[in-house]
Each structure stands twice: as C-alpha cells, then as structure tokens.
Amino acid sequence: MKPATQYTKSGHINIAYQVYGSGPIDLVYIPGWVSNIDWMWACPELVHFFEEVGKFARLILFDKRGTGLSDRIVELSTIEERMDDIRAVMDAVGSPKAVLFGHSEGGSVSALFAATYPNRTISLITFGAFAKRRYSPDYPWAPTDEERQKVYEMIENSWGSGEMRLESLAPSLANDRVFMDWLANYFRSGASPSAAMVLTKMNTEVDIVDILGSIKVPTLLMQRTHDVDVKIEEGRFIADRIEDSIFVEFEGSDHLFWAGNTEEVLEEIRAFVTHVIPKVSYQKRLLTILTGRVIPSDDMSHQEIVGQFVGQHRGSIIQFDQGVFIAAFEGPNKAVHCSLDLQNAVKGLALELAIGIHILEGAVDQVHFVRDETELLVNEILKHTQPNQILITQTVKHLLSGAGLNFVPHTSVFETVLGEKMLLFDVKDNTSADKYHVDFKASNLDRRGSFLENVLESIEENISNECFGVEMLCREVGVSERQLQRKLKAITNKSPNQLISSVRLHRAKELILGHHDYNITEIAFKMGFSNPSYFSKCFKKEFGLSPSDFLQNQSRYEPVAKTIALSEMI
C-alpha cells in the first residue's frame, strides 16, 4: 500500500515526503540523481525492498528540491541545501535521530549530513556511493570529462523520448522491458530535461573527499564488485577514510540496489540497523568558520550589521576583537552568501571587508568560544585576504556546486593547523559586475533568509496581487532589475517573471491537492490571475494537465496512472 504523500517546508521550498512502516528505528532513504516518490511504488522490486525495510524501521522517503513531487521552482541546489531538506523532513515527521541510507549521489549528501549533524544521525548506510564525479590523478576511477559528456548528450537527445541507455544501471534486468520502461519513466518523472542537465553538471563538480575523515557515526558501505557506473575502487577508497567503517562487496554489476541480489543487501541492512549501538552524543562535528577583518578597524558601526547578517544566515558570532570577527556556520553555502551580503551592505558605510572561509572538524560547543586551533586558522587565512575580497579553501569550493558563483584560483596556498596545504579561491558573485548599486538600509535586515528565501517570501506575501511583478519585487528585496535577473538566473535557472508564475502555479496546485472549498476560478483569483482561462493555460503548461483534469486525476488516483501522467508533465 503506497503511503500518503505529504509536504513540509525547507525554507520556502515545498519538499514532498512519505512515511512507511512502523519499526522502532527511523531510516531516511536519500535517493540518487533524481527521484519521484510516487513512481517508486510502481516498481514491484522496489516496493518489495521498502516492505521488508518497513518491518524493522520506519521508512522515510522524500524528493529533494527541484525533483519529483517537490517544488520545481529551483533547478540549482547545493549539497548543503539538500542537507537542509533532509533535516526539514526529519523535523516534519518528529524524528530526532535517524539512520541515513544514501544511494549513489545520495551517498554524498548523506555523508556530509552525518559529519555535520552527528547527533541527529544514528548511523550511515550507502550503496554505490562516490566521493568525486570527475577524474583526477588521485581519484582515477571517476568518469573523465569525455565520459561525462556522453551522459550530457543522452539527457539532451533522449530524455524526453527515445532510448535513454540505462541498461548499465541494472544489467541483470537489461532485457526486462517492463522494468527498463519503468526506469526511464521514473527518471523523466523525476526531473525535466533542463533540470536533469543542470543537476548532472553540478554533480560533476561535487567532491567530499576532504570531509570523509570527519564522519564518526557507525557506517556501512555497500557496493557490487562489477558496478559499471561507480567503480568498486571508489567504495574501497571511501571505506579507507571513514574510521571503523564496514565495507561489503556483493557479486554482480547492478548499480541499483533493488536489482540483482537484493535479499543479500536487505540482510546486511537489517543486521546493521538492528544490531549497531550508536554513541549517545558526539563532541565534534563539521563547522564552517568565517573570519572577517573590518577596515578601518576602529569603526564599531559594523558590529550590529555583522551580527544580524550572520544570524540571518543561521550562523553564530563567536568573537569580535579589534576589527576582526569570527563566525561559525552549519555549511559553506550559508557562510559564503552571508559574506556577499555583508560586503554589499558595508559599501554604503565607507567600510571594507576582507573575509576568509574554511571548513574544519570542531567541537560541538565551538559556537560559544574560540579554540586555539581556530585562532591559528583565522590568523593564517587572513594573511592572504585583501580588502573587498572573499577567499575560500578548496574544501569549501568543492561543496558549493550549484551555488551560482564563480571561483578564481588565488596565487596563495593556505596551510592548515595540521600542516596540510590547500589551494585558495577568490569568490566572484555573478552579479558583482552590475553597475547599479542599491545602498544598504537597516530595513533590509528585516528578512531572515538568503536572497532566494527573501524573493520567495516577497512573492508569497503578494501572491494574490495581480499587479505584482518584477518592478515591485525589486523594491521588495532591494536590488536593481538587472541584479535580480542575473541572481535568479544563476540560482534558479529562471527569469523573475518565470519564477513568480511558477510560485503562483505551485501554490495553486497545493490548494487543489488540499481539497479546500475553492473552485478553480476562486483559486485563480487567489493566486493573482485575473483571467481564469489564462490561469488554466499556464497551469497546463506547468503541469501537463488543466486544473480541472488535475483535480479529477487526484480524486480517482491510482499509483501507476498518476506517475505516468507525471512523467508526461515534464
């Protein structure tokens, strides 16, 4: 029996999730690449796997932002934002701690989550996971640029129709046309062609090698020996770098865990989940440390501004001392965007900022005081940083794929407290060359999110106003139209008008799904459409069905019928 699909908010993004089973332990499944949690239940092999897991765990499924049944408002997302989605779903189902089960690309975000939030992670399980997706001499098993190009060409030429050449993911079922047709539809229903392309190119840049040693939770890594998509050497490489991890090799070549010898995979998971004894609490976790130097240092007007922007990006100030401040963040994306916002803010105050950002394994209570190793790190990174510059280490850069930023190699080399040498990169915002500048005003601090969060909040606050458009949105978020165009294109791959329309249509779909006592015309007016016919036309373009057909489809829902319809919406 397919569980009900529900929604929760990760910031302003709607994340679709399902809960199945009633076991005593929570297990969150983090799928690879793209997914559709409704379409999963149309595959007998995967349903059997879920049913077995549901006997010993409460299984939690979700679609990450931009894919499946979650909001398609964004196509670009960082690995850190995907962590936020996991945490939001766990909060929604009342799960303080859970086992994380990451498949393929989902293994990367699961690993980062376990290192960042060890006290919310019972244990970590991966299947067919990789640490990098791009060849390098120190990681020669990842695909070359030429091999990745073939994947891009498949998406470009075959995503919407034709053969997707997915047999390598499940060789044992390559001749099963029913399964292969389901798999192709599963991917198409999980993402549009453009979103699949953006996501694939982003994944090419992800690199979690530097954070593997920070994973302290009990870890089970599984992989099939002859997996073509992710080489067995990659699994062994990861296992060597995670302390006390268990690595299990299975015979076969299927990359999908629900194809081939699935009973063996299930037994390993069952034994690990039911017998592992996790620590009660962990004293260390991954932290992103931002250090800034204000020039001139004797001007104290910056302290309130810095404190508010850091809090706005969910960071914590841990020191102010003679023009130098240190802040801790849960991830690099928040730290970098806080830095960009800060630099824009102080331009109107005749101040300059030099900022450096690095990731380290620090004490959980690091946010309350500065430790000696952090002090050394701060002094070292600030040596290389000039006024009006943001420098990040290569570890930070590797986790910012999808952030819509440019990175320029710096001439200096950063040396950590352990003597390790790392490359430095200068962060360039895609909108930094904009000749229009909006002066900072204290009122701009009222909003409590990132740039995208503020944009979405502004749209939602004005969602019923048919006159609300790009000009009003610019005034609401305090940027020029040119800045807005560039920033939203970099972050969401949409123009401002497209984003406004998409938000309205997705909220209209929520009203339809919520079975409110509104007819289609009333919903159109509530979402800022003055013409119901135009609303229906836009809705059909966005979702593949007219509002009335969509409503009728929901009322007589059958899993296969709905997921086939969803695959046609893309």
TrEMBL record:
GO terms for molecular function: DNA-binding transcription factor activity; sequence-specific DNA binding. Pfam families: HTH_18, Hydrolase_4. Residues 453-553 form the HTH araC/xylS-type domain. Transmembrane segments: none annotated. InterPro entries: AB_hydrolase, AB_hydrolase_fold, Homeodomain-like_sf, HTH_AraC, HTH_AraC-typ_CS, Hydrolase_4, Nucleotide_cyclase, Tscrpt_reg_AraC-type_HTH. SUPFAM superfamilies: alpha/beta-Hydrolases, Homeodomain-like, Nucleotide cyclase. Keywords: DNA-binding, Transcription, Transcription regulation. This is Pimeloyl-ACP methyl ester carboxylesterase.
